[in-house]
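User: For a reading group we're discussing how well predicted structures match intuition. Take Fe/B12 periplasmic-binding domain-containing protein. Before you show the prediction, I'll give you the sequence so everyone sees exactly what went in.
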Amino acid sequence: MVSGVRRNDGKCCFPTFYRIFTFAFLVCLFATSAWSGSRTVIDQVGRSVTVPSNPQRIVALAPSITEIVFALGQEHRLKGVTQFSDYPAEAEKIPVVGSYVNLDIEKIVALKPDLCIAIKDGNSRNTVQQLESFNIPVYAVNPKNLESVMETVVEIGKLLGVHEKAKSLVDNMYARAERVKALVLKTKSRPRVFFQIGIAPIVSVGTHTFIHELITRAGGQNLTEGPIPYPRYSREQVLAMAPEVFIITSMARGEVFEKVKADWSRWKDLPAIKNNRIYLVDSNILDRPTPRLVDGLEMLVKIIHPELFSNKSGSQFRGSRFKVRE
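Assistant: Thanks. Here is the predicted 3D structure of Fe/B12 periplasmic-binding domain-containing protein, as structure tokens, for the group to look at:
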């Protein structure tokens, strides 16, 4: 036990070094509990993960994760992203650690992350295990539809300590989706939609995809629904379906994109061509599990059901600001 020192006035005091030590200890204790703590959570694939209470060095292992972190206003925490993390534009300034299906473990480790956020559809279990072998916590998300995308936004918001911001963002997404639902209920028409995502071969979308869900929510009939996520078709098969709405989206851009549209436009008897209802759209707002899926939904309902829109109702939808090339 450290005893006090008797002063001339008879009062007792502790040695200076002891008071300094006590103060420093309390400061460190507070800092540790406030900033360096950790907690154990269950991620979206059912794994128990110990994560920092206040992560500051995050590596996003998929473009969709990058978008969500930006949407939450926490981009200053991002120290690494994957290839094609191109939205918003500021994301392209962040160091790239490979593609989300072929990550560079050495680059990730060199960034000294205190948290990696992975996605089940893309990041392999082996990759996650390698990162964890370096004592890097990995939280995995597994969005399958629009509702679970909203859940993912909330979960990432909790991880980053911005739950209220995440909740506000999701409330906005939900309200906009409900407006589309109410609008679609005004008509019984369900135009036949062919959605092309691959050029050679021709590839479309099955039932268990984000695009199928958005087509359905927007009041369309997906002509290629079924158990195969990304079915392939011949030109003859597509023509036989006689789509009323033809939508083309691809990572290809420029002249290639326009050429695909021009090739289909030669088939004048196709209902979509006859009625000038063939469109080129940005793939990223339709197949990335991010808040922008609602932008894609608003865009699709305007493409599939233009008759439902007056100038007044159309102005309610952000999708109207996206370029749709007819």
